[in-house]
Amino acid sequence: MIRFAFLIIFICSAAWAVEPDEVLTNVEYETRARAISKNLRCLVCRNENIDSSNAGIAKDLRILVRDRIKEGDSNEEVIEFITDRYGEYVLLNPKMSFQNLLLWISGPLFLLLGGLISWRYAKHKGQDSTKELSEDEKTRLKEIMDD
Amino acid sequence: MIAELGHLAVIIAFMVAIVQSVVPMIGASKGYIGWMDAARPSAIIQFLLIFFAFIMLTISFVTSDFSVKLVASNSHSLKPLLYKISGVWGNHEGSMLLWILILAFYGALVAVFGKRLPIILKARVLSVQAMIGVAFIAFLLFTSNPFERLIFPPFDGKDLNPLLQDPGLAFHPPFLYFGYVGLSMTFSFAIAALIQGSVDAAWARWVRPWALLAWITLTIGIALGSWWAYYELGWGGWWFWDPVENASFMPWLIAVALLHSAIVVEKRETLKSWTVLLAILGFSFSLIGTFIVRSGVITSVHAFANDPERGVFILLILIIAIGGALTLYAFRANSLRSSAVFSPISRESGLILNNLLLVVSTIVVFIGTIWPLVAELILGRKLSVGAPFFEIAFTPFMVVLAIFLPLGAILPWKRAQILRAGSPLIGALSLSVAIGLLIWSLQTGGRILAPIGLALSAWVILGSLTDLLMRCRMIDIGFSAGLRRLINLTRADWGKTFAHIGLGLTIFGISAITAWETEDIRVAKIGEEFEVSGYTFIFEDVSKINGKNYTSDMGTINAFKNNKLVAILKPEKRFYPVQRMPTTEAGINSSLKRDLYIALGDFQDNGWTIRTYVKPYAVWIWIGCLIMAFGGLLSMTDRRLRFASTIRLKQK
Fold this sequence. Notes:
The structure holds 2 protein chains of 2 kinds.
Chain A: H1 2-13, H2 27-37, H3 56-71, H4 75-86, H5 101-127, H6 135-146
Helix pairs in contact in A: 2-3, 3-4
Chain B: H1 2-30, H2 33-37, H3 39-62, H4 69-74, H5 81-86, H6 92-113, H7 119-143, H8 167-196, H9 201-232, H10 243-268, H11 272-295, H12 308-332, H13 347-379, H14 387-393, H15 395-410, H16 418-422, H17 426-442, H18 449-471, H19 474-477, H20 479-488, H21 491-516, E1 518-524, E2 529-532, E3 535-546, E4 551-561, E5 564-569, E6 572-576, E7 581-585, E8 587-590, E9 594-604, E10 607-616, H22 620-636
Antiparallel strand pairs in B: 1-10, 2-3, 3-4, 4-5, 4-6, 6-7, 8-9, 9-10
Helix pairs in contact in B: 1-3, 1-7, 3-6, 6-7, 6-8, 7-8, 7-12, 8-9, 8-10, 8-11, 9-10, 9-22, 10-11, 10-13, 11-12, 13-15, 15-18, 17-18, 18-21, 21-22
């Protein structure tokens, strides 16, 4: 198992990503291809995009992306084309679908929730400015004074 | 014999830890002084025993004793000495022993230097610390024994994964573990405070140095790991949002929040229960991180042991520790009331905002990290969450944090008027906006990120300097008098300034490298000349090199700027025969202005594939981290906070 895991590292990260013969001469197309590639996952690697992976499948995908661009697809169409064939596993940036709702809204949601709580806390803290000392505090004050 | 001695020492340490976790705790609740006193010697003995075991394992590695299974599968007689030693923790079992060693070390530190801690608090802290120890030593003994022998020892070992044979990675785990485990200390203090039912300024003062130490080492550990990825993985990425990286990043974020909220407890005796909760959360994320890394439950670039038995064991530890702590918290947090008053616009509120942003961003990282697992288990869908998600979902929080940082840092305690308190910052603000606009107008068609990031970094740095200037009142009282005040500022004040400036510099490095990096990929013949963003490179030659345990193709590429030689780059393609694994060693020339970065690829069609990058201001990412850590160190050595002199208030 460990061997296998190392093998995966070996295939993927032994450094060769985009190779010179893949690069498109059209600069705009190439820039778009690179941007798209950064969002697509190399299927046999661990958390690596196809742009920086050395695996054969990543190379195939890179060429496929470029072919689709040359065919005149928009960025979204290219991504859709690839997702249709390889499943959503290939997307490093998961879709904003209903099932992924919690994933996408967790940040804003918790910010709102935490923000409300802190706001109420801070307001509450601003109000009761003159309060009697509690029994605990009285005894402690006495202790300190006695010292 | 050596390995058996080590094994025996761990078993005895296990029993000592059991005693240490039970006896002082009972003593503390019954008021038996003698029972409480047992905590001190047992913490020291436990540490010495684990240390002894660690030395025994190290000896096995250094002498290449291949009858020990762990040595046979992770070392090789030809390996350089440094990697024989770092090989001790370059594997699952050894790294767990290191984890336990550091845990025991922290316990011993409290025992030795905590003379002034109230005896009841100390007994409870050490007892909780020992409970964690019991859990992890049991884990080591029952699932991951590093001292296991082989009946038929091999002639030579299988060697350490070559990717790990690197100075950056040799020291990355120890620092990281110092950080992870350091948070166990604040956790133990939090549990002790909950049992005791009180938290006061003195408690915050005792906790802060531990939180600082954990945070400093985590910062350095993360920076080392990122630096390693930068030069070793061959395409100059420095952060991948890999689950293993996130595992260390989450405790770091919580530690930052904890450091700031502990200031509020110390200065204003408020936010007590929240700070205790953060202390619990910090270590919880360390445990979650350990679980993620050790169980291999979430696949990632860093491949380690994949053994369900171990995963389940750590999961149990995790559930008991976090569940137990949170239950205790639910019952006792109410007793930690505080009566201090502050208005919605005040330093207190600023720090609450800091905590809010840090904790929510931690939650985002956490959910993003476990989402693939959740989706597969619950929704039955295989999906990925990678860097693009985190860039969208996480970065905005850090942007908002950086926007509010200088303002929050300059607000007075209790009550403030935002316009009056903020007015000294107008200079810093306008200058930063001007810098942003200037860069925006200068760059043609580049990403919007550069002007925003650079304006933010200028704002954070200039804001910190303004804060410093205000503190010494140099404008009011003249230069020399101001200078004297400046020198006399406490180390905690200096620490704050350095840490914030370090953050600003890291933001600067990140923005610059992300926005302005240029790349060139080509097949080059020997003698070929090519140009990348103003630099001329000449591909001189490639030669075969024999290393101690590898062979290598080493390229030589000279870089010129304006016809002057500025750097000779030597990128390598190494091959480690024992593991039959190639690695790349990028040729890097660093300066404060830019990194020239070249990686050498395969030979094809009479030429070599060469990837060249010019990465502007890349080193500032790590310089910023070091300055942050230095700021933490200054703060930690502040006279009022030193472990040894944590006194007063309660004790007198």
